[in-house]
């Protein structure tokens, strides 16, 4: 049975006492899984550039300090960061090509590092390049540096790269960017980029050392809901600390060294188990192998939690949660956490959850939402289905359409979760209706390269 709205939900004001209708959702079809994507091999690297000795870090000045008052050593830091930003702002559109060159140079300089990357190395090399450059560009901006360094630390930890990799990483990065920069590579750019790398690498190493370790986990159940959707439950060897709605990094045996972020469906459990809803996406090496090939008893590795919304259950503004597909895992986690607060006596703010899917099978989580909302008058659920416009128990069209029809949501805090395309469409629609940007929250770790 699934929980569906019997009538539209307005953005504010009095809320009807019951906004749910139970409808059957059984007898779902299944179909065979598709084959995995072929492996892409990085070609031989170009001639490596001369090795450059990395400069020692110096003090980072506040960004508001006038250049005339900045000590000479600190002015070098500012100029280094400016050099990185000036070049990368012109090369960002060529990030994929630069990352390919970066990976080829890195493996030429240090062949042993190739084993730290998955068979399809380009996406991992691109994430490493992106996070490294972001940290380098922020070395003169303390307000931005912490977040950039934390992202770089997670990439280094996921790839299990220790400090012996810093030298080839820095040389390969500078060499790859120089190759594509052309006339943008001004005199002194080598020294500036090397100094910026040194300033970013030190704090990233310290941050990586403080991250929680990787935890082994055993798959205890695997349920195939459709040809491209599965629910997997794992039991970690030790508890994985996480907040409701956070994601964790996962490595499966079918795709070694290829880490992907998955969000546990539901709030943290007393038994420590984690449930993941996984959709096989086009070109997704990890997701397709999990849906088609994961079995009970196999061993996974779980990395530290990250991201996720911070939801204040007792805040004054009402809460809107808009999710699509497996983004429902985030909504389940938030709702279960809020229900727990309500049981503890907290006056939980009114919350509307909109769950969208392409087919009725995608809305399999509505059963659990119905159970949660059954005794909670502050919680309302809406289901939206794109492929069945004649089902009167479901809102027709996409979840973004349903949200826009029920809006505007000017006085709400909004949490959005789903695919990158769904998040972009939702945020654009909310902004167009006048919802302030600082009230819209979504996971900044969502990948565009699939999983």
Automatic annotation (TrEMBL):
<dbReference type="InterPro" id="IPR017927">
    <property type="entry name" value="FAD-bd_FR_type"/>
</dbReference>
<dbReference type="InterPro" id="IPR050415">
    <property type="entry name" value="MRET"/>
</dbReference>
<keyword id="KW-0001">2Fe-2S</keyword>
<keyword id="KW-0408">Iron</keyword>
<dbReference type="Pfam" id="PF00970">
    <property type="entry name" value="FAD_binding_6"/>
</dbReference>
<dbReference type="InterPro" id="IPR017938">
    <property type="entry name" value="Riboflavin_synthase-like_b-brl"/>
</dbReference>
<keyword id="KW-0479">Metal-binding</keyword>
<protein>
    <submittedName>
        <fullName>FAD-binding oxidoreductase</fullName>
    </submittedName>
</protein>
<keyword id="KW-0411">Iron-sulfur</keyword>
<dbReference type="InterPro" id="IPR008333">
    <property type="entry name" value="Cbr1-like_FAD-bd_dom"/>
</dbReference>
<dbReference type="InterPro" id="IPR012292">
    <property type="entry name" value="Globin/Proto"/>
</dbReference>
<feature type="domain" description="FAD-binding FR-type">
    <location>
        <begin position="212"/>
        <end position="312"/>
    </location>
</feature>
<dbReference type="InterPro" id="IPR009050">
    <property type="entry name" value="Globin-like_sf"/>
</dbReference>
<dbReference type="InterPro" id="IPR039261">
    <property type="entry name" value="FNR_nucleotide-bd"/>
</dbReference>
């Amino acid at each position: 049975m699934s929980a569906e709205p019997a009538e539209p939900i307005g953005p504010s004001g009095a809320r009807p006492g019951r906004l749910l209708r139970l409808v059957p959702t059984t007898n779902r079809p299944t179909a065979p899984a598709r084959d995995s994507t072929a492996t892409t091999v990085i070609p031989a690297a170009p001639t490596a550039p001369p090795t450059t000795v990395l400069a020692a870090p110096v003090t980072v000045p506040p960004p508001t300090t006038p250049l005339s008052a900045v000590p000479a050593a600190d002015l070098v830091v500012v100029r280094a960061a400016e050099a990185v930003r000036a070049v990368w702002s012109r090369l960002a559109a060529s990030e994929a090509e630069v990352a390919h060159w970066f990976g080829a140079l890195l493996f030429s300089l240090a062949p042993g590092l190739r084993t730290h990357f998955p068979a399809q190395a380009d996406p991992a090399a691109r994430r490493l390049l992106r996070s490294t450059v972001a940290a380098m560009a922020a070395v003169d901006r303390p307000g931005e540096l912490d977040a950039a360094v934390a992202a770089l630390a997670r990439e280094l930890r996921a790839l299990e790269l220790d400090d012996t990799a810093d030298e080839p990483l820095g040389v390969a990065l500078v060499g790859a960017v120089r190759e594509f920069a052309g006339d943008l590579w001004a005199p002194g750019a080598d020294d500036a980029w090397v100094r910026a790398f040194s300033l970013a690498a030190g704090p990233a190493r310290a941050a990586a050392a403080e991250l929680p370790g990787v935890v082994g986990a055993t798959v205890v159940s695997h349920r195939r809901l459709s040809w491209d959707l599965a629910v997997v439950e794992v039991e970690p060897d030790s508890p994985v600390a996480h907040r409701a709605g956070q994601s964790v990094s996962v490595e499966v045996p079918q795709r070694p060294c290829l880490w992907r972020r998955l969000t546990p469906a539901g709030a943290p459990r007393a038994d420590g188990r984690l449930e993941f809803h996984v959709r096989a996406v086009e070109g997704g090496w990890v997701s397709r192998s999990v849906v088609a090939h994961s079995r009970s008893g196999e061993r996974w590795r779980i990395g530290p939690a990250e991201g996720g919304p911070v939801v204040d259950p007792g805040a004054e503004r009402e809460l809107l949660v808009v999710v699509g597909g497996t983004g429902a895992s985030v909504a389940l986690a938030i709702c279960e956490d809020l229900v727990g607060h309500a049981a503890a006596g907290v006056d939980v703010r009114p919350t509307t959850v909109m769950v969208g899917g392409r087919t009725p099978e995608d809305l399999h989580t509505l059963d659990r939402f119905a159970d949660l909302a059954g005794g909670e008058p502050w919680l309302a659920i809406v289901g939206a289905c794109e492929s069945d416009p004649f089902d009167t128990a479901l809102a027709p069209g996409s979840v973004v359409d349903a949200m826009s029809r029920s809006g505007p949501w000017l006085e709400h805090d909004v949490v959005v979760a789903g695919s990158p395309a769904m998040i972009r469409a939702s945020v654009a629609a909310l902004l167009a209706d006048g919802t302030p940007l600082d009230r819209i929250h979504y996971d900044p770790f969502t990948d565009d390269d699939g999983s």
